[in-house]
Amino acid sequence: MTKNIGFGIEAPKNECKDKKCPFHGELKVRGRSFEGTVISAKFTASPTIEWKRMNFVQKYERYEKARTRVKAHNPKCIDAAVGDKVLIMECRPISKTKNFVIVKKC
Length: 106
Ligand SMILES: [Zn+2]
What we know:
single chain, binds zinc ion
C-alpha cells in the first residue's frame, strides 16, 4: 500500500517492503528538505548526499563557497545511484548519522 506523504511529492512507481520507506513503511517526513547529488553509495542503503551553498562572510563582504554533506536513507523503491540528483526530506533519526530520507529523483 502506498502512502501519500504530502508536500506534493508523487510516490515512486516501484513498491518496496522497507519499514523505513516514507511511501511503503512507517517513516514520516517533516522539517527541512534539500536538493542534492548522490556522491557516494558504498553503503547502498545510506548514500552520501552533497549540495553546494554560498556563505556570506561579513568581514570581507563576499560570499564563500561551502558544501553540505549528509547521509540519507535510500528506500529500495527509489534506489538512487551515484550521480543522481535527489530530493531529500528530514525525518526522525534513523541511525547516529542519518536524519534524512530520499523521497524523489529529480
Ligand atoms: Zn518504498
